[in-house]
Amino acid sequence: MNPDPSTSNPFAGQTTQATGAYNNQNSYQQGTGAGPTTQATYGTTQQQQFTQPNKFPGGTTSNPFADTSTSTTYSNPATNYRPTPDGVGNTTPGVRQVASTPTGHQTSKKPKSSKVDPDKIPRPEIDAQSSYEPKRFVTAEGLAPPPSTQNFITVDNGVAGPRFIRSSFYSVPTDPSTLNTMNTPFGFIVQPLAEPVQDEEQIALIDYSVQGPFRCTRCKAYVNPHFVWADGGRVAICNICKMQNKVPTDYYVGTNEFGVRRDKMERYELCKGVYEFLAPADYSNRKPVLPSIVLCIDVSVNSINNGIFNQVLSSVESLLDYIPCPELTSIAIFTFDQTITYFQIPEDLTKELKVVAASDIDDYCVPFPPNTLFSNLAEQKDRLVYLIQKIQKYYETLYQTQTQPKTFSHGTCLGAAINNCGEMLKTQGGRALVFTTSGPTVGMAKLKKRDDYKLIGTDKEKTLFTPQCEDYEQLAKTLLDTRVCIDLFVFSPEYFDFATIGVTANLTGGSIYYYPHYNPTYDGEKLHYDIARNLTRNCGYDAVMTVRTSTGVSFGEYITPSGRKPNPLLELSALDSDYSINVLLKMDEKISDETVYIQTAVLYTNAYGQRVIRVINLALKVSNDLMTNFKGLDCETVGLLLLRKNIINLNSQTSKHIREQMVNQLVNILYAYRFNCANQSSAAQLILPEALKVLPCYYLAALKTHLLRLNHDVKLDERSYDLHRFMRLPVNVMSTILYPKVYAMHSIYSIGEFGPGQMTEDGRVVMTNSIATTEDKFDDDGIYLIDNSETIFVYVKKQVDPSILLSLFGHETPENIMAEVPGLPVLEDDFNTRVNNIVEQLRKNKNSSYQNVRVVVQGDPFEPYLLHNYLVEDESKFGQSLTDFLCDIHKFIQQKYN
Known about the structure:
- Helix 13 (635-647) runs antiparallel to helix 14, helix 14 (655-677) runs antiparallel to helix 15 (695-703) and helix 14 crosses helix 22 (882-897).
- This protein is of the alpha+beta class.
- Among the domains are: 59-128 and 670-898, Severin, CATH 3.40.20.10; 205-271, Roll (SH3 type barrels); 290-536, Rossmann fold, CATH 3.40.50.410.
- The chain contains 22 helices and 33 strands.
- 51% of the residues are buried.
């Protein structure tokens, strides 16, 4: 049973159930394990129920290739695959086994013209055992991490764990020529403010008072576990630049007979790969940014009718108790359509709200002193609740008294609204959450519609991803200078122009959320969870990041949502815990050392107003053996860096050209391995390096995304939105976006003593193995969870046993479920409880925004969109099947031999 939302976690959202125009009735219903959900249907002034129409564009227990060899082999077209020593389903002595844990669909429906055995193809699968007995990953120099999709516990042993940083190489070649031979990007993806999971240590904050942390006097690297101590501890040799530094008296501690400081295990900076220093006052000449938040909400007719406006305010009100550090947090709210409306709270809350609409939208115009519009969350929460409720009442009354609802505007002055957010925050910095249903049609920086689909696939296509004016880029630069971050929540069913407006979020470090077909029945819950995550996650302000590397390796460039950044100093107005940063490195010369060291440092202001430095240290082994270099690759990092290196060029190259480049790069990597490491194998075999065996799967999935499709029915905004999120999301989230995970729920209807969906003593949920993301694995009487990292779909086939439907949904027929069950209910039933537990665990595994749940029954109009977009192994209008793709890759590799 979920606790009351007033005392529960921040995801226990207030349910807003409304029929008729703003007939606001608060009610609570049981959620799916995270408190009451949020659903809303809003009517017109005639009290008719409004329904937003749907509009849409256009297992095994162990991997059969997980053997002790260094490559994965299968033939084309024969099926004489290399056997594995362990087979499938073997148990490990002493390991607790799950009763009745299915391996997915038991019989494979072969494709019509299968050239390879689909059951032998490597894919990013989820192993159930890791869910209840996660492996401990003890970090060490050159040790490659487990896949991000697996459940593991990181033990920081002096090298940063993979939640914070993942390198493409964990065994670095000794010279540039070998690196060039491998055709593989050299770099890393860092998530500076990543959140540790259950059983992992929190990040230590170290205070060295006025003198600050000990650093190298030449390269300015921070002291870390890889400093070498000489002369009995009086000299510290920097691992980055080899400088010999005299150790200050107040930091000196002697060494033992092995040259190790005697206080090594007592100081976090000497034994951990990730830690924070409290920054001395002289590290910044600017006043620390406190968490000031502006909520800028669209009140145009689309926002009112679709329930967006009321949902935003209801969610914010329910989350006020969960925003970090309320004593330092201040919040202001204003609204906009074709004018901007401000609200000033009276000192006496029994009096009415002061409301002023500013029609001058070409210049900044706030009728009240900006500081009077903010309320401190800890001291003035009652004022914020008053403000939210009065604003809702104001527009409810205004809407109901309109004799002609069409007098409500459809367009907005979005440009002026964003500018005003910046002006309100320019003296103290902070961030603004902007909710809009359309692009700017009036006022400053208004834009023209330019979604010309005929240009897709032509040389002029790239112009669609270039800003149509400089206004927003100039505004974004001003926001960055004044340390203001913009988060955009966009609900526009029409063309919005992310390519132009999105720069305000991309350059400042903000997030973009996109709901192009917002339907409160399905998306109200998602919107609530997105707002909850945004307001409650760890967020740093006024962030500056730098990268330092050891001899032979140097910084190349950042690849960010706002473009390539060749300067090693990266500035962001805000840096949240879900933000990952891509760094490409260069190899300048032959490496003579045995280890490559990388240190990233981020100076930022935390939620408590402290300037702190987060230090992340990585150590990579060096080898002159090419096979060892290939074994030391991290597939997810290699794939994402390749993808991000290419898609950042969308404003200068066509999507067709980028697709061709990506395929060529994949072929070159696999050819390099085949030619240099497996040249004796039969030409009829496609050889995949063990470390990269699922890379083709991720590649095909990337080519089928909105971003890289060649179809003309893909909205340009969908491409731009994909570009934004693909550049910044964490590795584990991106892995599931590219290759959604599918779980068969009907297979766990009956289980033994210990099985999927049950809870272990330490609070972990026992999962089931994932199955291949293809309809060939679907039974006609099955129920499947499809997790695409944004939404968890419950896909119900028509021939499901009625008793299973009754247990899970409380209805016995698919027709009743389609008509009455938009989400997953919570029932007093064991099967229902276990499925809800699995859904809840999938949400937690992302360590990011909770996902909404949507039920899709076979025959639902949404079904084709679901299957074509998320079953990425199948052939569709968006691309070929995985088996055909592998055959083509094999053919291209063979051609390079000839």
